[in-house]
């Protein structure tokens, strides 16, 4: 294995690496794929030089939790996440434990499916200027972090590098066809509503989230990750106030630091101070505990 960065992230050279994303490494293993969630962290579409220890384990275990919890809404690509049940040839790589899952090979749809339940981020900026979010007209008088009457579906392109671009639902229909577009929109909204209610009862507001879908034999399934602190905005129910930017359980803490030092958001990214790294790690751990009822320390 070849070590990357200054943290735990490694490349397993004996396996067939087919894709390296910002935070995930994907290997081909026979008829299936091995998804490995690393400790890399990205901000503003740039991979940072610092890692967040055990972040990959949190993301992997939260995804596994949600894949299991939402399988009644839509099938997903997860085959196995428990390292003890992995094939023998993978068990020699202890690095994989709790940060990887074996998944089905699917043909990804070339769009990202974003559901927004609150007015924040780029959506709030657009609303202030135009009264819309991704072209969807919203009522007047909303504030930062206002809860929307109903969650809205705002798809985007899926860029291999650089920024994804928000697109209209009509444009999405042109890209993947009307039937598929309607289906993934309806599934995305159903997933969000189910997860929102579940998380809210446990002290977390899922303000928005991103889903990705793929096809196997013409059937649409949920792929990639699901409802993690990297693909979603997680806010504490206790700290929520309309009109204020709530504290978060996700990587927004690190983003806020980078904004404070006026980084130009271009590579190379600055190193994160130890305090920011440790506090970010704690936020990921807390999100895991609140959602699953389990302590992350049990898995380390």
Overview of the molecule:
The protein has 300 residues and is α+β, with helices and mostly antiparallel strands. The chain folds into 2 domains: 104 residues, Phosphorylase Kinase, domain 1, CATH 3.30.200; 162 residues, 2-Layer Sandwich (D-amino Acid Aminotransferase, Chain A, domain 1), CATH 3.30.470. It is built from 6 helices and 18 strands. Strands 10, 11, 14, 15, 16, 17 and 18 form a 7-stranded antiparallel β-sheet that branches. It has a 5-stranded antiparallel β-sheet with strand order 3-4-5-9-8. The chain has a two-stranded antiparallel sheet with strand order 1-2. The longest helix is centred in the middle third of the chain and has 24 residues. The radius of gyration is 19 Å and the shape is globular. The protein starts with a strand and ends in an 8-residue tail after the last helix. The mean pLDDT is 94.
Overall mean confidence score, pLDDT: 94
Structural class: alpha+beta
Largest sheet: 7 strands, antiparallel
* Oligomerization: single chain
| N→C terminal distance | 20 Å
User: What is the number of E strands?
Assistant: 18
Q: Low-confidence spans: pLDDT under 50, at least 5 residues?
A: none
């Amino acid at each position: 294995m070849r070590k990357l960065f200054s943290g735990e992230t490694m490349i397993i050279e004996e396996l067939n690496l087919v894709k390296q994303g910002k935070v995930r490494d994907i290997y081909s293993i026979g008829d299936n794929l091995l998804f490995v969630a690393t400790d890399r962290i990205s901000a503003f579409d740039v991979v940072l030089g610092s890692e967040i220890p055990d972040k990959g384990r949190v993301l992997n275990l939260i995804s596994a939790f949600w894949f299991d919890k939402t399988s009644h809404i839509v099938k997903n690509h997860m085959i196995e996440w428990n390292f003890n049940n992995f094939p023998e040839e993978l068990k020699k790589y202890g690095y994989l434990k709790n940060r990887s899952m074996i998944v089905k090979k699917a043909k990804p749809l070339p769009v990202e499916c974003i559901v927004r339940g609150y007015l924040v981020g780029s959506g709030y900026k657009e609303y202030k200027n135009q009264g819309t979010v991704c072209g969807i007209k919203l009522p007047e008088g909303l504030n930062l972090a206002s809860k929307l009457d109903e969650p809205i579906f705002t798809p985007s392109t899926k860029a291999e590098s650089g920024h994804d671009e928000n697109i209209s639902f009509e444009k999405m229909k042109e890209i993947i066809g009307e039937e598929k577009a309607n289906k993934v929109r309806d599934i995305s909204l159903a997933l969000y509503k189910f997860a929102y209610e579940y998380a809210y009862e446990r002290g977390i507001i899922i303000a928005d989230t991103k889903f990705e879908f793929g096809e196997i034999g013409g059937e649409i399934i949920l792929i990639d990750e699901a409802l993690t602190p990297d693909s979603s905005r997680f806010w504490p129910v206790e700290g929520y106030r309309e009109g204020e930017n709530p504290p978060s359980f996700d990587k927004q803490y690190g983003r806020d630091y980078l904004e404070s030092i006026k980084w130009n958001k271009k590579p190379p990214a600055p190193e994160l101070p130890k305090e920011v790294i440790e506090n970010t790690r704690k936020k990921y751990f807390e999100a895991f505990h609140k959602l699953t009822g389990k302590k992350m320390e049990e898995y380390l």
